[in-house]
Design brief:
16 strands; flagellum; mainly beta; 55% strand; elongated; 1 helix; 2 domains; 233 residues; Histone H3 K4-specific methyltransferase SET7/9 N-terminal domain
């Protein structure tokens, strides 16, 4: 891409600014609509405001990624879609170059997440669908992990309860389509805790999944998740 509207002022601009074609303001800054090629091989086509990407635009990365949407002072801000090199895609809100607000993410393996984001991570209320099993989690998220009241829905049954650090923990129930439910709680065994303490000085052990302990089976009842904080492992 070559420059247009050359003037004596252009010779005072940095060398990379010559790789620009488009509008400028009276001070010679990129302003309005233009196309640019960056030193690293990326390209941008869209709106500028006083030398910075602001407004609608499309940014193509050399590695094959692409973003099209809103910018504010060179950062993704507002509504936009990001296509990643691995085939995944995010469409939704951006704040200061990060996924934040509401958005839908389609992962490379076909899984999808629709819900709230904060600082690039799933955070708030959201729904995650697993493509291979068609199972679905609907509930709270904290820093990218399932946390708070939620439902894990399978083909012919579902779990309703609370989650912590990506795992069910504490009281909950399994609801079966045949018309009954099993109440109980997810707990961590004391034996596993002791084993972890013994291995403390050695290599760190892998996280242990909580174990389900059933207490009763009954007819279906309404689900009202408690607001109490789940016990820590």
């Amino acid at each position: 891409l070559g420059s247009v509207g050359s003037s004596p002022l252009d010779h005072c601009l940095p060398a990379f600014d010559q790789e620009y074609e488009g509008d400028r303001n009276s001070e010679g800054e990129r302003h309005g609509y233009g196309k640019a090629r960056l030193p690293n091989g990326d390209t941008y086509e869209g709106e500028y405001d006083r030398g910075l990407r602001s407004g609608r635009g499309t940014y193509r990365f050399k590695n094959g990624a692409l973003y099209t949407g809103n910018y504010l002072q060179n950062r993704k801000h507002g509504k936009g879609i990001f296509f990643y090199p691995d085939g995944s895609k995010y469409a939704g809100d951006w704040v200061d170059d990060q996924r934040q607000g509401y958005g839908e993410y389609t992962y490379a393996n076909g899984d999808t997440y629709s819900g709230e984001w904060f600082q690039h991570k799933r955070h708030g209320k959201g729904t995650y669908v697993y493509k291979d099993t068609e199972s679905k989690y609907v509930g709270g998220w904290v820093n990218g992990l399932q946390e708070g009241p939620g439902e894990l829905i399978h083909l012919n049954h579902r779990f309703q309860g609370r989650f912590f650090n990506g795992k069910p923990l504490g009281r909950g129930k399994y609801v079966f389509d045949i018309g009954c439910e099993q109440r109980g709680e997810y707990i961590q065994s004391q034996q596993e805790k002791e084993e972890e303490e013994e291995e403390e000085e050695e290599e760190a052990s892998l996280p242990v999944d909580p174990k389900w302990k059933a207490s009763e089976i009954s007819q279906l009842t309404p689900w009202t998740p408690e607001d109490e904080k789940p016990p820590s492992p």
